[in-house]
Structure formats: C-alpha cells, structure tokens
Amino acid sequence: MSKSIQCVLWLCFLIPSLQAQQVEHITLQSQALQQEREISIYTPLVYQETPYLYFDVFYVFDAQNREFFDYVHSLLSFYCPPRNPFIVVGIKSNQNQDLEYARNNDLLPVLTTQRAKDYYGPYAGNIENFRAYVRDEVMPYVETHYRTYPRRTAIGHSLSASFVLYSLTQDPGLFNNYLAVSPNLAYEDDLMAKAMLNFDYSLLQPNTFLYVSSADEENYWPHWLGARKKVHAFLQKKKNVGNVTVLVNEYPDKDHREVFPTSLGAGIEALLGSVYDSQKPPLSAQAHSVTIRVQVPNPSDELYIVGNQPALGDWDPGRVKMEKTGPRERSITLPLQSLAELKFTRGSWQSEASVKDGLGANLMIAPEAGKTYTFEVLGYGDDQGE
Predict the structure, then answer these.
(1) Which CATH superfamily is domain 288-380 in?
(2) Is the pTM of this model over 0.85?
(3) Residue 99: Cβ-neighbour burial (10 angstroms; 0-12, 13-18, 19+)
(4) pLDDT of 253-311, one tens digit each?
(5) I need a labelling partner for 372 at 20 to 30 A (CA). Which of 47, 121, 123, 234 fits?
(6) What does the alpha-carbon distance between residue 18 and residue 116 come to, in Å, rounded to a whole number?
(7) DSSP bridge pairs for 59
(8) Superfamily, domain 21-278
(9) What is the dihedral of CA 162, 165, 171, 177, to 10 degrees?
C-alpha cells in the first residue's frame, strides 16, 4: 500500500475522533490583569454524549505553549475510562514587548533582591493579579459554562510549576491536586523554597495530592540545587502526613524541557492510583426540592430511585419507591443536595436500570429548586426476555 493511501485512511479514522473531542478558545477581558486573555478548553467525546455527567477540571499553565495543553488532555485519555472523564483548561500568558510584559510577569512576585532584578529585568511582579485572574475570572467562567465536578488539579512546568506551589502556600483551597514539574524554587533568594518549608500543611483540604519533580537543572542553573535539595528532603518526610499525600521524583538523565512528558505521566498515574477516589467533595448544605420523572418500558414496572444522600436512600436500592403517575411514568418530588448522584432499580442492584444517554454511570444533577428532571429507562439488569 502506498504511503499516500495509508495517510488518507489514517485521516479517515482520525477525523471522526477529532470532531468528537472539542477544543474551544475563549477570550476573556480580565479585570484583575487589565488585559485581554485567551484560555483553551478541551472537552472529551463523552461530554457531548450525555447530559448526566459532571467533569473534573485540570488547569494547565503555560498553555501559550500549546504542546503542554495538548499533551495533558491526550495523556488523560489513556489513563481515564469514559465514566471518569476530564475537562482540561489551558491558561495562557501574554507576550507583549511594547508593554514589556511576558509570562514571567504573571508568574513572579515583586522582586526585591538586586540579583533577581538584574536577572529578570522588568518581567516580574504581577503574580497576585494573575492568581486573582485564575481564581476570580477563569474558574468561575469554566464552572458556569461547563458541567464541572468540584475537584481541581493544577499542572505547571518550570516557573509555572513555581506558581502552582505558590498557589498551594498562598491559597490552600484553590486546588485539590498540585503537579509541579521542575519548579524554580531558587528565585529571590530561595523565596519559594522558604515558603514550602514554612507552610502549615494542615491548612490543605483532606486528601490533597502534591507532586514535585526535577531534572538536570543544576548542570546549567547551579543555584537551583540548594533550594531543591532542601524542599525535596522536607517533602519526603511529609509523605502521607496529615492532609497531604506527597510524591517527589528526580530525573537527572533528563533536561529541563524534555522531562515534562515522563514526569507528568508518573505524576498523573500516582494521583489516579492513590488519593483520587477518596477526594469526594461534601454535599451542599442546602437542599432544593426537585421532581424526578422517569419513563419506564413496562406499565407494570415498580421503580426505585437510589443515590448518594439520605433523600435517595444512601445507596439502598430498595428504600425509596417512586410513584406511578401514568401507565409508563414514575415520579417523585424530594429535596436534593448538590452534587446528586443517582440510579434507578426495581428494588435490588440485580435489577439496576439502563438509562438512555446514561452510559452506565451514576446520573449526576446539580439540583435547582422547582426544576423537573426527566429520564428514560431502557431496560433492567434482571430482564429475562421481557
């Protein structure tokens, strides 16, 4: 087969996959930064396939370098089954020579030492406004316009990895998970190293995951080595202590840039294999009265609703029975807390219902007072040719 024919066939298989996944580029007028900024938002195939799933969000910094953003969402598609998908948000920094503004302005504080001023020049000093932009503008936009699960992961490389750690020490609740690949801990006389050593880790949310790695940076930035050694040694002692699970990896055979794919893969694998399943956010304090209406396949069907809170029977499949409101309609009105996760049965887990567009996963809703949510049951696990 000729290479040109192979290429055409490959594209035929690839194009439907690319169409199913979506990357949107959103422009925001930032009040915090007084600049126009762009973010990129990746949603996987399953986002369009069902309205009943909510998605964890990975925030990738330095996404003006598109390869970081693309690598993260591509990598996650290998690690994560369809029922546990992710949205990936790429946060970009601006480069404007006329204004003497670049990524370092976003990622560095106001510098006070002469050595740092000489090294970075005018490109520093806006880190607090950048953090406000992420916290008060980017995150609310994403969580308003997309179905997001309340679990956030931050990913950065080099100076944006330093920003990830800065966020941990300055705003402990901003993320649930922190992945910092080759952070610069030495700028401003080891400022970030000192912050990591003096931080009160009990302020972190329960089951926080922290991943820090390094490459061969001391070969060309020797002043990085002392700060890195202190932080790595300190974090090794913090492993699985209190609210934080820590992993520190070192890749002395990789350079500063090429380490990103290897290191990030190890970090994500460790995150998903350790505390991730235990990071269930609490239900909202307030409950809203909603109506659940279900179309069933058979007029004789008795239907039960089951889910993740007392009003839904706390996952007891035979506790909460729905009312017959039509030959093939079952309904119930009840107070639900957010985020509600639910399923339907005929009274046992053996009879769990298959729901249209449900993909076999827990059905998720963020209840709004007075709203009716409709579902269609296609069949049951114990069907015997009915």
Answers:
(1) Immunoglobulins (2.60.40.10)
(2) yes
(3) exposed
(4) 999 999 999 999 999 999 999 888 888 889 999 999 999 999 999 999 999 999 999 99
(5) 47
(6) 44
(7) 89, 154
(8) Alpha/Beta hydrolase fold, catalytic domain (3.40.50.1820)
(9) 130
Largest CA distance in the chain: 80
51-103: per-residue pLDDT in tens? 999 999 999 999 999 999 999 999 998 887 655 589 999 999 987 766 678 89
Task: Report the distance separating Cα 192 and Cα 228, nearest Å.
Answer: 10
Tell me, what's the pLDDT at 12?
38
Strand partners, 172: none
Domain ranges in the chain? Answer: 21-278, 288-380
